[in-house]
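Much of our argument rests on the idea that a fold can be written as discrete symbols. Part of our work consisted of pairing the sequence of a single chain with a tokenised description of its backbone. We regard such an encoding as a compact summary of how the chain folds. The amino acid sequence and the backbone structure tokens for this protein are reproduced below.
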Amino acid sequence: MGTCKQPDCDLIVFDGECVLCSHFFRFMLRHDRAQRFSFATAQSALGQQLYRERGLPTDDFETNLVIVDGQTYQRLDAFAAAMRALPGLWWILGLCRFLPVWLKDPMYHAVARNRYLLFGRTETCLVPDDDLRARFLDWKPAP
């Protein structure tokens, strides 16, 4: 199990059962070459705690959480924050944060509500190697 290398470590909390969320996680692994981000699943004890602290449901994970420089982002703003933190031209995708709330929130919620229908749900867990496991802050699922 990994630990933060700094007090305000950058963290992505994602739904470990959602295929779309898992693809986002794998995308981040591929492109976060500096290993800036650590990860936790929403189903883990840490994920559950972070969702509770933010007043989010702990049984339906319609949003990923992205914590960058101590600031927590949700929904499309979470995606934008993650893209801005990557090297190269990925910051361009972060411009979606400038979409008006009346447009981006309904778009995000439509995909989030239907993510299992659109992209599927996985019942199998990723089996990480030691390097990947070190980037997870809380590998054990919540009871």
About this structure: The radius of gyration is 14 Å.
